[in-house]
Amino acid sequence: MLISATAKLNSVSRDYRYVARKLADEKRIVKAQFVHGLATTLGEHTVKSRKFHFHEHSTEGHHAKTVSDKKGSEEMLLSGSLEMVDGLDKQDGHKHHPSLVRFMIACYYAIVSRSEVVCYLVIVLNQMKSASLLSLPLPLMAFLWGSLSVPRPTKTFWITIITYTEAIVVVKYLFQFDFFDWNDSVPVNRPFDPPRILGIEKRKEDNDYALYDLLLLLLVFFHRFMLKSLGLWKDTDRSVSVSAIQQQEPVSHEEQYVTAAIRASEHTTTAPGLITSVPPEQQPGTSGALELSALPVDTASSASRCYDDVIPGQSGLEESFVHLSKLFDGISRYVEPFRNFFENLLHPVYRVTTDVYAYMFFCDFINFFIMVFGYWAFGTGGSEDGVASYFQKNEVPVPFLIMLLAQFALIVIDRALYLRKYILGKLIFQVFIVFVIHIWMFFVLPGISQRSFVEEKNLPPKLWYFIKCIYLILSAYQIRSGYPTRILGNFFCKKYNYINYFLFKGYMLIPFLYELRSLMDWIWTDTSMNLTNWLKMEDIFANVFQLKCQRRAEEEYPTPRGSRRSSLTKYGLGGVMLFAIILVIWFPLLLFSLGNTVGQTLLPHDCTVELSLGGYEPIFKISAQQGNLRQLPYDSWVRLQAEYKSSAAAQAFLANYDAADVAVVTLNGNSTAIWTVSPPSQEALIAELNRSAVPLRLSWAFSRSVDNTNAEKVVGNERTVQISDKAVRQSLAEMLHGTPNNVTVPPILPRFLLVPRKGKSDVIRALDTPGMGPYRNLTLRLRTGAFNNLSARSEWWEVQEHCTDSYPYPFLRDDQGSCTDLSLVVFNDKVFPQALSQLTGYGIAGLYTTFVLVVSRLIRGFMAGSSFTIMFDDMPNVDRVLQLCLDIYLVRESRELSLEEDLFAKLIFLYRSPETLIKWTRPADQHPLA
């Protein structure tokens, strides 16, 4: 991987290294030619040039031999091929360095060769660090001026960056003194505070207020040095077109020097009418004297003076025309640079096309997920839980939806411009995106979230902005270079190896991505195909590409004929697939059987018990909270296990729990609710007790905190018994009449309860013993009394159970409390963590009917049904079919739509004719196609 990265970095810097070597070699040759130094005047230069040419023709072989001896190879020195760069690296000894050293050298050359990109990135980092109006012009100039300059940013641009950055450093330094009022108290959560938004705020916790500005200056000066070393610092004359250069006749060396002198004189201030002459005696070898006449400085003003001399008196209308002409000349003088800038950008003299759309789409793709998972930083009042908290509530915030739709719309628009190859539209889109992004990120977003962009916790917007700036740099590079003629085809289909094969497989697995791309390509591409034929073509190419990757892999890793498959392949590939299928079959049962192992303990925080007689108002209601709900002590848990060690059913049940899963509930025997039944209802209840059996119902409910789990919040159940014993019914009726006595009802209170994740809370029968059943008897008593010296009397019920040291919970002993209280022992099922809650929510039957069956159908589709596609999946040689598909793409790009129809008809006929397809897909060395 390190070697591959080194090779990739070397390919990035190959042009720079070639030019640098050629310049160094030519500089060495020039130094060898001018032994006595360089010329200082035009005449001296001409004399030495003539002498050098005469000396060169007489001693050409000697010079070639000398240069060859100094460099080692004349062909390497004079060759213009870029392939010689790697050989020169090897000659310099780079190939003998360790891999890590070569990687570092490649990184250095890659940075040096793209030093302007490094400057752009530091400008972006500076804006992310400052986020102020003072630093905002820097990224705007970088994205709207420097990165769009053809062929490279001008000297004026870099001087502007240097000057403005130096001004920023000075301004920031001046406002760091303490005598400014706004430096005393820095407001919190006020991103639009004037000193802060202007960029002149003194940050007491940050002394490196100008660190990135100074770093930017350092890198720009380094870039300036690199441009000077390559001779690219001074701007060239861009008004000369290619046609003019081609039509220009060859000139002699003397004429070239004179032309250079004329151009140099144009930059000097010369008075009108002044004539500068070069005497013939100062120009040896020339045929005669050359007179250089300087042009007037201002032709418009000269013409105006001449017009005044001819016509002394001008009318008002004529003066208006003159002033209007001067006004237009002045405006055009300032508008002309902008017009030339866009003219060079949209219609350059030369253009080396490129295609970086895939990298731009990758940036937008990453930003899409940053916005999804980091939405809390893009909105108001968002928590760091992200958008997952909204999805759990089945809610979608409107701002979140708007941002996602806007991001998706930008991707679609960019794709449309790419397919149409619309450079002007791409330029307008670039300008629009630059302004919208900077207004949104540094003005709208801080106002919405009330958080400054530079806060450390504000990471998602920073990351989104940085990646978007990389997108803008790539987009500007695409605009400068233009779109290539051939852009159709998938980015992953450029090579035919395993990496591209699996990347293409992953691309095909992304839902709707293949369909969206196919539809957009058909909409915005000039073609003669209808949608059905277009989709057929895309499907054929996708299939042929995968076959090409498979055939190439078979060629690179051949299997000897007649040899058995190795055990490593069988147990490696086959064993993994066998294990995966077995795991899918038993996964639901395995998941729920391990629930009490991987689950989390969830004890209830409230227990409510109600007792009602017949269909009347409950006679008893009590709740246990906080201290009345406690975890079972570990020593009591040990005694519980020892008590049931002889019961296999009890041991199997207790094996699924531990002490942390068991809770002891203590309920007060006195009802917390007053029995407020009316006298007529009380008389009706007495009559019912004297007449027939009355149902007695006991209900219980447990409440839990179920955040991020799949458990139900409230779980409960009830038990109903019939009081059929006449003596018990008569005792209850007498108690309702006012006779103070106690009544024991049939067993109704459970000993052990199970609180599951979902469903009803049932009684545990696995812990029954011959002496103790699952339920206990209760003793009821109706109490009457007055409160706070009130004349009104109230009635409430008192409930007790029969208890001893060995009943009902001998393992609790002193922990079961007073016999006046009611005790319950509750076993709580563990709940699955949040990661498994979505799966376990379907239940065992739900997992088998959804997950297992769906996976089984996918595996069946992979292992069966291949006999119907043998003719298309087992082509031994797909090169001809693949070339036919590429030819269709080529003629489509060339707007040869008739030829596109013919070639596609040929492809369809090929797939309709098995015999022809067999001929086309035969190996070329066996039966070549005629």
Quick overview:
The chain is an alpha+beta fold and 930 residues long. The chain is built from 36 helices and 13 strands. A four-stranded antiparallel β-sheet has the order 4-3-7-8. Strands 5-6-13-10 form a four-stranded mixed β-sheet, with no helix packed on it.
Percent strand equals: 5-15%
User: Using only CA atoms, what is the Rg?
Assistant: 45 Å
Low-confidence residue ranges: 52-82, 237-314
Which outline best applies? Answer: elongated
Number of helices: 36
Q: How would you state the average pLDDT, rounded?
A: 80
DSSP strand tally = 13
Structural class: alpha+beta
Strand adjacency order, main sheet: 4-3-7-8
In this structure, how is the largest beta sheet organized?
4 strands, antiparallel
First-last Cα distance: 44 Å
